[in-house]
Design a protein that fits this description.
Blueprint: H1 6-9, E1 11-12, E2 21-22, H2 23-26, H3 46-50, H4 52-62, H5 75-84, H6 97-111, H7 125-139, E3 146-155, E4 161-169, E5 174-181, E6 187-194
Antiparallel strand pairs: 1-2, 3-4, 4-5, 5-6
Length: 195
C-alpha cells in the first residue's frame, strides 16, 4: 500500500501537460514481483490449448492489444505459437552463424548498456538502441554471462527474415528471442520473452 509511505509521497510527473502529483494520488499499491532477471512466464496447459472456446476467447482479448512498434509478431501470434509448441522449442542447425554472432554480440553489449548502432537496421536504430541501452543492464546485466544462444526457428516467409533463439545466462535465466533481420543481416526487430 502506498498511502502514508515515503514512496507514496514521491512526486510523479506523468507528462508535460499534466501537473505533478504524489504517487499515492494516482495509485493505491505497487506489487513487486522481484528483480526482472528472476521473472518467468507460465505457458498454457495443453488441455487449454485444445479447448476451442477458451482459445477463441483468449485470441479475441489478445486481439485488442496492439503489438509494440516494429514487432515481428502480435500477442495473438504468440499464443498460437505457444500452443503449437507444447513441449517447447527444439534446437535446429544454424546455417548462418554470422547472424547469431551479431545477436550474441548485441546482447553482450546491451548487458553493459552499450550497443553498436551498426548492428541495428537504420529504420529501427532510434527505438532499439535506446531500448537495449536502457533496459539491457537491468535485465541482462544482472543475469550474468551469456552461456548459450541456440537457433530454434528460421523463417523467411512473407518477405521477412525472422529467427527465434533461446538464450541461457549464468543465473539460469532463459529467454526466447524473436529477431527480425534485414536482407543485409542487421537487426530490425527484437522481442524477448522469458521461457
Amino acid at each position: 500500500m502506498l498511502r502514508g509511505t515515503v514512496l507514496g509521497s514521491a512526486i510523479w510527473d506523468p507528462a508535460p501537460e499534466r501537473r505533478p502529483v504524489r504517487i499515492e494520488e494516482q495509485f493505491d499499491a505497487i506489487l513487486y514481483l522481484g528483480p526482472p532477471s528472476s521473472m518467468t512466464a507460465a505457458k498454457l496447459a495443453p488441455a487449454l490449448c485444445s479447448d476451442r472456446a477458451y482459445i477463441e476467447m483468449r485470441l479475441g482479448r489478445l486481439g485488442l492489444i496492439p503489438p509494440p512498434p516494429g514487432a515481428t509478431s502480435t500477442p495473438t501470434d504468440q499464443l498460437k505459437d505457444d500452443c503449437a509448441h507444447p513441449g517447447g522449442y527444439k534446437e535446429i542447425p544454424d546455417r548462418e552463424p554470422a547472424l547469431t554472432d551479431r545477436l550474441r554480440k548485441t546482447l553482450e553489449e546491451a548487458a553493459h548498456g552499450k550497443v553498436n548502432p551498426d548492428s541495428i537496421a537504420p529504420e529501427s536504430r532510434d527505438r532499439l538502441v535506446a531500448f537495449l541501452e536502457r533496459d539491457g543492464p537491468r535485465y541482462l546485466g544482472s543475469a550474468g554471462k551469456l552461456e548459450s544462444l541456440v537457433l530454434l526457428e528460421d523463417d523467411r516467409s512473407g518477405g521477412r527474415r525472422v529467427r527465434r533463439y533461446r538464450s541461457v545466462f549464468a543465473s539460469g535465466l532463459k529467454i526466447i528471442w524473436t529477431i527480425g533481420f534485414s536482407s543485409e543481416g542487421a537487426i530490425v526487430a527484437l522481442e524477448p520473452r522469458p521461457e
